[in-house]
UniProtKB/TrEMBL annotation:
Official protein name in the record: Histidine kinase
Organism (species): Natronomonas salsuginis
Keywords: Kinase, Transferase
Presence of keyword Kinase: yes
GO molecular function per UniProt: kinase activity
């Protein structure tokens, strides 16, 4: 089993419990969790009670709570270039932090891209450190050239892009970006790992494996897990 396979298998054994407190019918939020393979308990709120919200517990302890404002980002995941997220960063960051290390199934590329932008934005705001990414194909990376041009030119990040041909003349030739060929061990994964420049509180990552019906994966702000994602990409 490869490093990335092992990471995803480990994540699937974690004890995560999500409870949806709702008024009326389940609605779109409950449907989103259902379609992403999340085992969720539902509890009713009185008609004069608060708006719907979810409570996340991890390993028997409270991990976070999210209201409708934050949960709305699940339904329409934001795709905003790193450094330009001031209008929505607080709400999406809360979502990212509360649901980290939760495995979702059938994730779409748009959802993965939204999580990727959150990680890239945290790297951008830190300005230093190592960011490793793998988007499976050069074509998938081509769609993100503007974002990575900004990351490379506006910061002193050390950026490594995997699963591309280093000799591809269409790639950005910018100091700070190094390209690496892929391989069977990583080309089936969409993955990012930012080391926080040595600050465990800033480290974050994403790992998702392509399946027939989308992607199965998780995001994390656990520094040790981020280090393992980085090692899996680096080979």
């Amino acid at each position: 089993m490869t490093t990335l396979e092992s990471l995803l298998a480990d994540a699937q054994t974690r004890n995560v419990r999500i409870t949806l407190y709702q008024r009326g019918e389940t609605g779109s939020i409950g449907g989103w969790f259902d379609s992403r393979g999340v085992d969720m308990e539902r509890r009713s709120l009185p008609d004069n009670g608060p708006e719907s919200f979810v409570v996340i517990e991890r390993d028997g302890g409270f991990a976070g709570a999210l209201g409708t404002a934050e949960l709305s980002w699940l339904l329409e995941p934001p795709i905003v270039r790193p450094g330009d997220r001031n209008g929505m960063s607080a709400g999406y960051s809360a979502l990212f932090d509360a649901l980290d290390d939760t495995v979702f199934t059938a994730m779409t590329r748009r959802e993965l891209l939204a999580v990727s932008r959150e990680i890239e934005d945290r790297a951008y705001r830190t300005g230093t450190g190592v960011l490793r990414v793998g988007f499976q194909t050069a074509a998938a990376f081509d769609a993100q050239l503007d974002a990575y041009r900004a990351l490379a030119t506006d910061t002193t990040l050390e950026i490594h892009v995997h699963s591309v041909d280093p000799d591809d003349g269409a790639l950005l030739d910018i100091e700070g970006i190094t390209y690496h060929e892929g391989g069977d061990a990583i080309d089936q994964y969409w993955a990012l790992a930012f080391d926080g420049d040595g600050d465990d509180g800033r480290a974050c990552g994403l790992l998702a494996q392509e399946r027939t019906a989308g992607y199965d994966g998780f995001w994390t702000d656990d520094a040790a897990t981020v280090e393992r994602i980085s090692a899996g990409l680096a080979g």
